[in-house]
Amino acid sequence: MAFQDEILEDLCSVQYGFDSRGRYQVEPKEKIKEKLGGRSPDLGDALLMACYVAKPAVAGWVESRPVRQADALLSGYSQ
Q1: Buried b / exposed e along 43-70 (16+ C-beta atoms within 10 A)
Q2: DSSP labels for 43-64?
Q3: CA-to-CA distance for 63 and 66, rounded, in angstroms?
Q4: For residue 6, with 0-12 CB atoms within 10 Å meaning exposed, 13-18 middle and 19 or more buried, which class applies?
Q5: Distance of CA 5 to the CA centre of its chain
Q6: Element housing 77 (H / E)
Q7: What is the pTM for the complete model shown?
Q8: 18 to each of 21, 23, 24, 40, 47, how far by Cα in Å?
Q9: Per-10-residue mean pLDDT for the chain, 79 residues long?
Q10: What Cα–Cα distance (Å) separates residue 12 from each residue in 1, 15, 64, 68?
Q11: What is the distance between the alpha carbons of residues 79 and 63, in angstroms, rounded to a whole number?
């Protein structure tokens, strides 16, 4: 299988829903592996991680938790 086909299969096999707080909830990796015949979706994972952009900190808080000093420095927010 060409790696492009493997990436496409990796990305298209994953299903998601929402938890009780409205957050994305991706199905467990073991279920994804079952769909892919036992192999791990490594190429799809790598592509998603390469494209991931974290939400910046806003006024020192991220999802109702205080921002740690390292997070604050990386996001440009200083205390």
Answers
A1: bbbeeeeeeeeeeebeeeebeeeebeee
A2: HHHHHHHHH--PPPPBTTEETT
A3: 8
A4: middle
A5: 21
A6: none
A7: 0.58
A8: 8, 5, 5, 23, 23
A9: 88 90 90 94 89 67 50 51
A10: 16, 8, 32, 35
A11: 18
